[in-house]
Design a protein that fits this description.
With 357 residues, the chain is an alpha+beta fold. Helices cover 36% and strands 13% of the residues. It has 10 helices and 14 strands. It has a 4-stranded mixed β-sheet, with helices on both faces. Strand 4 and strand 5 form a beta hairpin. The protein binds arginine (ARG). The site of arginine has 7 residues, from strand 12 and helix 6.
Length: 357
């Protein structure tokens, strides 16, 4: 099974990169021997890098895949000590943020015995009873059980919660604030929006998925791109089970009604996108609007067609949450078949939420 998966991956990668049949056979023999001797095998740095890029290319939910070849891979497979772990995390934050000109970046820890990261993203805001991000209540409680106490604002950056492979106890690490870039949100035409004091962080670094390449599962692989504006403005800010900001924004905009037929709710959603987009730009932070992202995705589809590869996708995710019908993705279907290499949600059992609940 492992050998089959390894063979499939090596064949695909080496063909795409125009390696000779000879080189391919040599590498496959090497891998076969390694598996026979040790039960597993280790990717070369090049295989790890290309495999991670292929995983992005195969990510059915992602509209940003045009840029799959630019993914930067930090090889952290040999990290063991606490110091080296924190170093790798800080390097990721710094390199990916890049002063606002965000780079797509992934850090890959050990395949056999990786450190565990409990956070859903490296940077996220705590969720309390009536404040903060409700999506992060569980991880906030875990942090509190470990002795952390947030300031209690709507935007307290959570500490990193992790466990090293040879230790039994979880550790916590407050991210250095100079490595956490944030953007205060304001609106060009509604100056009072600023008074709400809403903000968002620049870099979404997913830290709760597995990466599978050629039969090898990497269980700790924080990775990021940059935001598409509606992820923040429509989902994080407007969803009733997230920041639920419609009413507060209506006050700031001095709208006198939220009646369905006034269309003010819709107006607020659009204006929030305008606010988030231009606030990010004003602060020199990379972000893409939904119409441009959809155009880029069309470009990706053309590239893939030229390479004789089929694009798979998950329609409900590829359709943006603002003005979905304005983009081509809405108007046709996608096969949601999962190709490998790819990123996978962790299975329920291994998804260690708060162990105290
Ligand atoms: N939707 C998630 C969030 O709002 C981020 C998912 C990844 N997004 C991205 N543009 N790479 O935090």
């Amino acid at each position: 099974m492992l050998l089959e998966k390894a063979t499939e991956f090596i064949n695909t990668m080496y063909d795409e990169l125009d390696y000779s049949q000879e080189e391919k056979t040599k590498r496959l023999n090497e891998i076969e021997n390694e598996i026979n001797e040790s039960g597993t095998y280790r990717h070369t740095t090049e295989e790890l890098t290309y495999g991670a890029r292929m995983a992005w290319r195969n990510s059915n939910r992602c509209i940003g895949r045009l840029f799959w070849e630019t993914l930067i891979v930090q090889d952290a497979r040999d990290v063991e000590s606490n110091e080296a772990f924190i170093d790798a995390i800080n390097t990721h934050l710094k390199e990916a943020t890049n002063g606002g000109k965000i780079k797509s970046y992934i850090t890959v820890f050990s395949q056999d015995n990786p450190p565990t990261i409990y956070n859903n993203q490296l940077i996220r805001y705590a969720g309390y009873e009536d404040k903060g991000d409700p999506a992060e209540k569980e991880i906030t409680q875990l942090a509190e059980h470990l002795g952390w106490q947030g300031e209690g604002t709507d935007f307290d950056v959570l500490p990193l919660i992790y466990k090293l492979p040879h230790e039994n106890q979880m550790r916590m690490y407050e991210l250095p604030s100079e490595l956490v870039l944030e953007v205060p949100i304001e609106h060009r035409n509604y100056p009072r929006l600023k008074e709400l004091g809403i903000k968002w962080y620049a870099v979404p670094i997913i830290s709760n998925m597995d990466l599978k390449i050629g039969g090898i599962t990497y269980g700790t692989v924080p990775f990021n791109g940059w935001y598409m504006v509606n992820e923040i403005a429509v989902r994080n800010f407007t969803d009733s089970y997230r920041y639920n900001l419609i009413e507060k924004v209506a006050d700031a905009f001095e709208f006198d009604t939220l009646k369905n037929t006034s269309f003010n709710k819709d107006r607020i959603v659009v204006e929030l996108n305008d606010a988030v987009y231009h606030s990010f730009k004003k602060n020199g932070v990379s972000i893409v609007d939904h119409l441009t992202a959809a155009k880029q995705f069309e470009h990706f589809e053309r590239n893939e067609e030229h390479a004789h590869r089929k694009v798979t996708g998950k329609w409900s995710w590829l359709v943006p949450s603002l003005s979905p019908t304005l983009v081509p993705n809405y108007h046709h279907g996608y096969s949601n078949e999962m190709r490998e290499p790819n990123f996978f949600y962790k299975k329920k059992a291994e998804k260690q939420g708060c162990p105290f609940h």
